[in-house]
Amino acid sequence: MIDFNPLSLFQTKGKIKKVYREAKASYLKRIRIAVGMFYFGMGLSFATWASRIPDIKTALHLTEGDLGSILFALPVGQLIIMPFSGKMVTKFGSHRVLIVSLIMYVLSLVSIGLATTVLQLSTTLFIFGVFGNLSNIAVNTQGVYTEVLFRKNIMSSFHGMWSFAGFTGALVGLGMLALHLSPYNHFLIVAGIVVLMVVFNFNFLVKAKEKIKAKPQGKKLFAKPDSTLIWLGVIGFCSMASEGVMFDWSGVYFKDIVKAPGPLVILGYTSFMIMMASGRFVGDRFINKFGRERIMQISAVMISVGLFTAVLLPYLIPCTLAFMLVGLGVATIVPTVYSLAGKNPTVPPGEALTIVSSISFLGFLMGPPVIGHIAETFGLQFSFAFIGIFGVLIAFMVNKVKTV
């Protein structure tokens, strides 16, 4: 029988094949740049899609309700592939899965621009979600490997590249609108850029294949996951719920509660995003100096203080400063959680990241809708105060994580 694995076609040919410890600092730096560019490519692809949602809504004559229902196709695709993402990364290697999944991610982005019916848009968004999750698990596994090579915390800077790509994607989107380019042409240009990033950087990804541990006889199919991973997942859940609320509700809060005039409505969201991205670029330095546990607890307190301040002082300047504080708070928590998960001694990095990201991602999905229902009953300020409690929970749960 012929054993043909198409993923082997993307075998990397880096200078270092087995031992990276003897590599020159310049080569390790090149690896870090390459992995960072893959994070950037993922962020740019997602931001590109998000920047043209209004145009696609108009082109397909969708109501707000229609669009809301269709947008569920993306997280559904992510959730369905989650049980298999880690196993694929473990079996084939994160470097191979990342190359293939990122290329398919941008190709599915292009296909979104070709959608002319609700069914086509839903299907392409579902596929976009599938390859987005595969890319997410693979790229974070690469981030863990690279962090091990540098023997210090650098995961936050990788996530900073994703955040920076979000700004870049938004600016590029504005430029494309000014040029009156259709979403399809816009997506095609971005896809070309991302593919070029892959071509120039795939050769420098870390080649590592985890050993697949044999299951002991009599072990249950659905064994209880490592308790540390569960705690990390819950911490990620609370942080991503806070992040998701800021993404979806900060503008509404500034409009309805703060009563910000005109263009200043976006000030809350902008201040949050700037501080989150900035915090990720400088976060590793503080983690290396003060330790993960202390920084995670301080970050958790920032989230709570920021949200409670926004509730108690619903005015333009205090709320802007409060949202900046929340941005700094969420900046390093998820990167740190992923870093710790990938270094779990009993579970391969890809599978550990799948467990933690699955729990964390539920927070991103459930946070905004839950806020909507709470706000409808008790008011938006009460709902923000409710999410503020999550920061307090994170501060207490950090003590439960043995590997911090």
Which radius of gyration do the C-alpha atoms yield? 21 Å
How much helix, percentage-wise, in residues? over 70%
Task: Name the helix and strand elements from N-terminus to C-terminus, one letter apiece.
Answer: HHHHHHHHHHHHHHH
Q: What's the count of strands?
A: 0
User: How would you characterize the largest beta sheet?
Assistant: none
Low-pLDDT regions: 1-17, 214-222
Helix-strand category: mainly alpha
What attributes characterize this protein structure?
membrane; 15 helices; MFS_Transporter; mainly alpha; globular; 404 residues
Explained architecture:
This protein is mostly helical. It is 76% helix and 0% strand. Helix 7 packs antiparallel against helix 10 and helix 9 (227-256) runs antiparallel to helix 12. 50% of the residues are buried. Mean pLDDT is 84; it is low at 1-17 and 214-222.
